[in-house]
Amino acid sequence: MKTKKRISVIALLTLWLCLGTANVFAAGNTDDIGDKIEQFVSEHSDTTAGMAVTVFDSEKELYSGCFGFTDIEQGIRTDENSVFEWGSTTKLLVWSSVMQLYEQGKIDLNADVRDYLPERFLKNLRFNKPVTMTHLMNHNAGFQEILWDVFSNSEEDIMELGELMAHRQPEQIFEPGSVTAYSNWGVALAGYIVECISGQPFYEYVNTNILAPLGMKHTSLKPDYSDNRFVRERWGKLVCYTTDGKRLEPSRYFIPIYPAGSCVSTIGDYLIFAQALLNRGSVLFAKPETHDLLFSPTLYYDGTDIPRCCHGLWMIPYEKPVYGHGGNTAGCSAYILLSAEDNIGMAVMTNQSGEEIYNCMMPELLFGKYDETKYFGAKRELPTGFYKSGRTVLTGPIKLYNLTSLLSFGEESHEEFWVRNTETGTVAAPYGDCISVSTWQVIYELAIFGLWALSIVAAPVMLIVMLICRLCRGESRPLGKWTAVALLLRLAVIGIAVYIVWSGLTYRPSDAYFWGFGVIAALAAGLCVWAFVGIRGLDRYGESMRKSTKFARVMTLCGIFVTLVNILYWNMFMFW
Fold this sequence. Notes:
Elements: H1 9-19, H2 30-43, E1 50-56, E2 61-71, E3 76-77, E4 83-85, H3 91-103, H4 133-138, H5 161-167, H6 184-198, H7 202-214, E5 219-220, H8 229-235, E6 264-266, H9 267-278, H10 288-294, E7 299-300, E8 307-310, E9 313-317, E10 321-328, E11 333-339, E12 344-350, H11 357-361, H12 364-367, H13 373-376, E13 385-389, E14 406-409, E15 418-421, E16 426-429, E17 432-437, H14 439-473, H15 481-505, H16 512-534, H17 547-569
Antiparallel strand pairs: 1-2, 1-12, 2-3, 4-6, 5-6, 7-8, 8-9, 9-10, 10-11, 11-12, 13-14, 13-17, 15-16, 16-17
Helix pairs in contact: 3-6, 3-7, 14-15, 14-17, 15-16, 15-17, 16-17
C-alpha cells in the first residue's frame, strides 16, 4: 500500500465543511468531539460501569470526560481521581524504556538479547537463530504461551522480576521471526533486560526515567503498588464489572509478571504518558529522531508494505492509520491510540474487563470507521480449513491448552485474517498468526481427548452400576483390587480436573496437579500390565469370570489405557 500524502489541516477542515457528515476530527473542533462522545456514552449507558476518556494533540488536551461509577453499588462516581489498571498498555512503558537505552547507546535492538542477560539465563531456546529486542517488540521471538504469573490474588506470589523470569521460562516453539504470537513473557523479558542494563529494578527505572520527568504523580508500576500511596489506596477501593455491568468479585488481582501489564493510574496521568508518546519533542526522549524511530515499522504483513507493528506499537486499521496498544486485566480495560500523521490521540480507561464499546467502537468518532479492507484491499486468499493460534502451547504439561486455540475457517468467515505465507498457509491477524493444521491431526487430537472425557464421565457411572448389580445378586465380595484401583484412578482424574478449573477461575495456578498426573500415568501403566496378565484367566477366587464381569473389566481397561495415552500425548507427565 502506498503511503498516503500528508493532508493539511485547512484541507481537512474544508473537506469536513463540504461533506458535513465526515467522521474526521479536525483541530479546533473540541466541542464537536465532546458532544459526539457524550452522545455515544448516553446511547450505551445501560452497560456502562465506569469510563474515562481523553482526546489530545501533542501540546494540549482537547477533551476529557469521566462517566459512570467506579463502584455502582456504593454510588462512587468516576472522576479525575479514579484509578484504572492499564493492562497491556503497560507494555508501552517497556518499549519506551528500551528506546531510551537505545538512544543512549546501551542496547542494540538487533543484537542477541543474551548479550544483556546473565550467562546461560535462557534455558529453553531451541533454535540457533538469536532472539533480538526487535523480536521481543514484534512478539515473534518464538515463545509459547504462559498461563502462570499473569494474575494472582496474593501478594505472596510476587517475586523479584529476575527470580520470576528465571523460575518461569516457556519453551521456544518457533524460530525467531517466523511466527507472530503475542507474548506477555517476552515483554517481561524485555523489562528484565532493562533491569540488567540499568542496574535498577524495572519499576524504579520507569519511576526515575519516565514517570518523574513527565510529572506522573498518580501512577504506580510496582506489582504491589506500594511505590505510590495515592494509587494503592484508590486501587484498593476499585470495583470492576463484566461487559454487561455485573459486579466481579473479586475483581482486582496482582500481576507478578508486571512489566507486561501491572500499571495503575488516573486518566490524567494516562493522558500525560500518551501525549508524550505523540509529542516528538517531549522529555520522554532526548532526540526527536528516537521518537521517529519508535513510529517506524519493524514488522509488515508478509508480501505487503502494510505496517503491522512499530517497535511494539500495533497498527490499528481505522480510516487513517493509527498506532497504539490495548490492554485488559481481570477487571479493567484500556487503550492508547495515536495518529502521528494527524497529531491526534485518544486514551480510554474502563473498569470493565474485555470492554469493546468504548475501546474499539468509540475511537471511530475520532479516527473514522474501523475497516481493514481499506488497507489490505482485495484478499489474496481467504483462509479455509483448520488453524491453531500461534499464541498456544505445543509442548510441556499444559499442552492440552492448544485445543482451545483451534480455529475453523470457512469460505466466508474471519475476514480480518490474511494469508501471510503462501508456502505454509499461515495467516496473520493484527496481534498474531494462525498456523495451518491438518484435518487428520485435528481429528486425532479431538478423538483421543473425547474418548478420555467419555471414559472419565463413565467411571462413576460404571462404579454405581457395578455396586447395584452386586447388591441385586446378593454378592458381598469386594470389587477386587484391580477394579477398585482402576475406577479410583479415573475418579482422581476428575478431582484434578476440578482443581485445575478452580485454580484457573480464581487465578491460583499451581504445579501440584502435574505431580498428580505423573502418579496417575505410572499407576495406569502398571494396571494395564496387570490387566493383560490376568484378564484371560481366572479371578482371584479361581472361578471363571462372568461375561458381564469380563466386559466391565475390558471397558475399564480401555478407560485406563485411554487415560495413559492422553497423559503421555499431552505431556502431562512432565511434572518435573
